[in-house]
Amino acid sequence: MKTRYVTLTFLLSTAMPLPALAAGADHDAHHAAPAADAKAALSAGEVRKVDTDAKKITVRHGPLENLGMPPMTMVFQVSDPALLADVKAGDKVRFTAENKGGALVITRIERQ
Prior knowledge:
This protein has a domain at 42-111: CATH 2.40.50.320. The longest helix is centred in the first third of the chain and has 14 residues, at 27-40. The chain has 3 helices and 5 strands, in the order H-H-H-E-E-E-E-E. By secondary structure, it is an alpha+beta fold.
């Protein structure tokens, strides 16, 4: 009997949160949340170097929460070379980086 109680407790503690199970929970609302989180996913950094020919940018950044990375300086590829047009070395920026096929790619960047 004790084993069943422990198993049930474990299953309940790892199950989906109750608000998501509530009647009337909208599946589309679940997918709308990342748009609101996109702004929060922006990380702070400082541009160190822009290499438009190689479509790369070097950024000294704070923690990249969405990638689980600590602060460091690193080279990123860009998803669109046009992202490099408005930034230069020394600019303070906020950006979003993603892991795309093993490459760290900046998909959004804005000067502060």
